[in-house]
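Long-time lurker. I teach an intro course on protein structure, and each term I like to show students one example going from raw sequence to a predicted 3D structure in token notation. This year I'd like something fresh instead of my usual example. Would anyone be willing to generate the tokens for the chain below so I can use it in lecture? Attribution to the forum is fine with me.
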Amino acid sequence: MRKLCFLLAAIVCLMATGCASNLMRVAPPDFARTVPADGEAHVVFLRSTSFGGAVQAPVIEATGGQLIFVAVVSANTKVLHKTTPGEHAYVVGGEDSSLLKADFEAGKVYYIKVEPHFGLWKARFTLDPVTAQQAASPEFKKDFDRCKWYENGPDTQKWFQDNIASLRSKYETSLKDYNAMELEKRPVIKPGYGLADPLP
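-- Reply from a regular --
Happy to contribute to a lecture. Here you go:
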């Protein structure tokens, strides 16, 4: 019994420990968070908690079934993803996978929270859409400020290619789960969720 309690305590401590992925690096001081250029939309993925910090959250874009690496989102970090207007799909890995669909408007900045949850063996994650009203709230601003800006390092694409078979499997599973959901329960980013100006 004592050994079991010790093991459970160790697991909880491990899940609560925050550590950044070695695939990502701190963004430079002059990291630009500008208004999107013409024909462009920006997406900020942020993970504003240390819970499950020992487990990294890889995010990929899966628009039209084509996989594109976005970032590994660690505890208390945020990353900027530049993309095109229109319909997109994103998947986050973990113990299982979760999919979110989005419809972006040109010139807007969108926010998506990478939320950890208890899993059987390690943390699982969901991609939670943030509405324009939520993004303007003091609660979200506090979460946003808590996170540090990170960007992809030089080895991210190699890691992506080495793991693309596993990531494709996660995408296919999460797409089936997404399509099986009732329409009103499917996580989506609507065009009106975007902000004309990025949060400072």
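Some talking points for your students: Confidence is low (pLDDT under 50) at residues 1-18. The radius of gyration is 17 Å.
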